[in-house]
Amino acid sequence: MKEYVIVRVQGLKLHLLDKRDYERLVDNPEARERYIGVDVFKDPLRARRVVYRKLRDRAKFLGELNPEYAKFCDLFLLRIECENVKALLRAVSSEGWELPWIPFENYTRIRHIQRLGDVKEVLEYVDKSTPLSVSYEHIRLYLGEPRRVHVEMILDAAYYEALKREAKRVFSESVRQLIDLDALKMLTYWLAVAPNECYELVHLGLLDPLQPSWMLEKGGIRVSNIAEALHALRSSDLLDLVSKRQVGRLCESLEKRYVGELRKALLKEKFTDVSVYYYIYMCYTEARNVDRIVQGVTRGAPREIILSSLILPERE
Amino acid sequence: MYSISGALASRGTLLALRRRLRTVRRAKEILEMRRDQLVKEVFALIDRLKRREEVEKEFVSALIEAYRLMLTKGELDFFSSAKLVKPPKLSCLPVSLQGIVVPKVRVIEEPGFEELRDPDYRRLAERLWNVLKELVELASTEEAVVKLCDYLSYINRIVNSLERNVIPRLENTVRYVEEKLSEETLEEFVRLKRISERVREEA
């Protein structure tokens, strides 16, 4: 069955958008309406909903082709819901305008999320409604009263722990290494943004799911600073961006390089499960890109800015 | 003819009119001095407003950066991070500028960016706040210029009315009373002369 999915994915990959398609989506309202099926100016929220529903349908289709992948696909897309939860953590104590939630609901419900009042309630909700294991009491045991950044990092760690656990069950070593790199990307972000808090959690072992397995298995070596993280990602040349405090550009470069790594792995092992992971990752990237186009176009952002914010894959 | 409210053209009236004319002329001089002072103040403020174009350009550039950041990081991340900023506290106080009450916006408490850990967001927030602070300052200055100009045009109207209406009419009335008094003096003189001639003839 796995072989069938791998062959099927070779065809599905051809439906992914490329640079020219994205340019057409930005420039041509008809192309946009044809792809999304909704006029983005009339109902931007509905348009975004359609984009994420398409992503969910693609993941569901993979799961239908081979039920072994179904849980992994769901877990992979849980990162979108985690973004909603992290946004809530930032906004939980503030008042003011409504947040532009990402309209993606698989494990969580936005209406429910909006009603949560403090960090404890948020974590209890995540623990109960998703496969992520995050316990407020457990965090308090280690950190006393945790700060928001601590909780966000622990949430990311819980996400990658669940994803890696599932990947270990269904995917080969090559894919697991790619997921390791993905998690390391997240660790790099936290080391750049909140180095002290991140260092603290790394040494408590709370961020082990974000650490690359090949290093942890080598006798518990942990990445604990940004230079080590970039070295592990073979991107030490980006250290310059860290010293200039340009974290946005750093993340963008890492994301583009990661997509490049995926392509390299795909070319090396085209007819293995790497192509399945590549496909699901690129579907996710495509949904994020189209979402950026919808947001950019409806807010009247200049074309160049919209296009420069996209993560563009290369064609085979 | 300027009315002296039915008073007779007497020497007392003439003295009162001359006193009034002197006062009006002095008032006009004072108002002209005040006008010059206000014009100087307005020019000084307008000099400050010349920075507006530069500040607006900086504001637009900061907004473009915000757009870029919003699209790269996503609307949700952008707006939820914005909620981490502790909003500034501003107050609008009436202050006196050359004796005219103008509004002045003062920053009571700067915004708090401590919770904003991402350096990109922090840099953008600080940049936007600096530009906004300058824009608020410029808006206060602009409002002060508007108020001063309003007052300036009011003073101009009074000066013009004094110069072209009140003073000429007062001068005419003074002249009229002077003529009337000199006519009366002449008449009195002729009458006295005739009486004295008749008295001399009869004698």
Summed up:
The complex is a heterodimer of chains A (316) and B (203). Chain A has helices at residues 2-12, 19-27, 29-36, 44-65, 67-91, 110-115, 119-129, 136-143, 148-170, 173-193, 195-204, 213-216, 226-232, 239-243, 247-268, 274-298, 303-308.
**Overall number of structural domains of chain B:** 1
Assigned CATH class of chain B:
Mainly Alpha
Strand content of chain B: 5-15%
Which sequence of SSEs, written as H and E, runs from N to C of chain B? Answer: HHHEEH
The run of helices and strands of chain A is HHHHHHHHHHHHHHHHH
Q: Measure the end-to-end span of chain B.
A: 47 Å
The coarse overall form of chain B would be: rod-shaped
Task: Give the helix tally of chain B.
Answer: 4
Uncertain segments of chain B: none
Quantity of strands of chain B, as a count: 2
Number of strands of chain A: 0
Major sheet size, sense and barrel closure of chain B: 2 strands, antiparallel
Return Rg of chain B in Å: 34 Å
Quote the CATH topology of chain B.
Answer: Helix Hairpins
| Rg from Cα of chain A | 20 Å
Count of the separate structural domains of chain A: 1
Strand arrangement across the biggest beta sheet of chain B: 1-2
Helix content of chain B: over 70%
Tell me what the structure shows:
The complex is a heterodimer of chains A (316) and B (203). Chain A has 316 residues and is mostly helical. Chain A has one domain. Chain A is 71% helix and 0% strand. Chain A is built from 17 helices and no strands. In chain A, helix 10 (173-193) packs antiparallel against helix 15 (247-268). The mean pLDDT of chain A is 90. With 203 residues, chain B is mainly alpha-helical. Chain B has one domain (16-171): Helix Hairpins (Orthogonal Bundle), CATH 1.10.287. Chain B has a two-stranded antiparallel sheet. In chain B, a hairpin with a 2-residue loop joins strand 1 and strand 2 (100-109). In chain B, helix 2 packs antiparallel against helix 4 (119-202). Chains A and B meet through helix 5, helix 15, helix 16 and helix 17 of A and helix 2, helix 3 and helix 4 of B.
